[in-house]
Amino acid sequence: MKVTDYFEKAKGKTLISFEVLPPLKGGGMQAIFKTLDPLMEFKPPFVDVTYHREEFIYNKRDSGYYEKIAIRKRPGTVGICASIMHRYGIDAVPHLICGGFTKEDTENVLIDLNFLNIKNVLALRGDARKFDGKFIPEKDGHNFAVDLVNQMHDMNTGKYLDSNIENGEKTDFCIGVAGYPEKHIEAPNFAIDLQYLKAKIDAGASYIVTQMFFDNQKYFDFVDACRAAGINVPIVPGLKPLTKFYQLSSLPRLFFINLPDDLVAAVMKVKGDKEAIKQVGIEWCIAQSKELKAKGAPCLHYYTMGDQDTIRTIAEQVY
Fold first, then answer.
1. pLDDT recorded at residue 52
2. Contact call for residues 98 and 145 (beta carbons, < 8 A)
3. For the chain, domain boundaries
4. 174-179 and 120-124 as β-strands: parallel, antiparallel, unpaired?
5. pTM exceeding the 0.85 threshold for the entire prediction
6. Class of domain 3-8+15-242+300-318
């Protein structure tokens, strides 16, 4: 079933969903099952699986020179989605990114997803590689998420890259995209970022999942701004609890978000006590979740980051 169908079927009830990371290369599905098994009691209708761009390593050769090798540290998104659907009987939503994929690569992945009856995809540009100063697309790849949405929409109408294909199989993907309540780090301002978001919706995207945030008013203001701009699709809040002291600086730096004064003060008050810091973050996320649920968010989407116990503790208090 499509993600948007679940929202319509819920008739205003706030659903719950989770996002998981593929295990590091060499790992197995048990890592995914370990994360998801304890969370299935909350009956998520779908689970997201992230996709990761290749990274570069340098191997020293016998000659003394270094060889640059591209590797994908967390492969297997498509296979993981199929396994999740088989084990739990729920839908899986693979992320599909621009970075590291040609248009042909993208089409082939989408064909595989269609064969597996995977109807939902979250279209993302993806991050720049660790050692690149900016995002660099693959040669003959997409530069922006809107281009990825356009390609998916073309396939939904039976249009493939090969112009010789006539009467091609029409796919039926439900396309999700990312939204940024505090604007994307590379956007010059919030208004321009909103224009980029509307372009993705106009291209065929059906729902939005937000970047994490810790101030619910940012989400409410974002929804209002979207509606004023003519963006009327469901907007799902993405949530992640703050659980470690170093995240006071790392989260704002990595995700271009602000942390509320009260949250920072509460963490600073128990600085040095790891368990107390984690408890502060859990309680903050519970309060966020309850307010978002009370005000009718279509779904609460939790970024698990492999910490299923913390997410389960939060979900128990909310659902």
1. 78
2. yes
3. 3-8+15-242+300-318
4. parallel
5. yes
6. alpha beta
